[in-house]
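Researcher: Please translate sequence to structure tokens.
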Amino acid sequence: MSRRMLALNESISTQRAEIQADLERLRRAIEETKVLWQPYSQVLRMLNHPLVLAVLASVRRRRAR
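Model: Translation complete:
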């Protein structure tokens, strides 16, 4: 019984270490993605400004004529 318990504990420890390593890789990937998206988020924020939206709607209406 104790051999099984030791084997099970070792297996659980190994899996826990793998999961922790995966989580760390995921955290780094998320941080990298945030850094890469910074310029795009600034542009998207600017494009969602109400005045920009109003100008684009006006241009769209003029083209539709």
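Researcher: Any highlights?
Model: The chain has one domain: 2-64.
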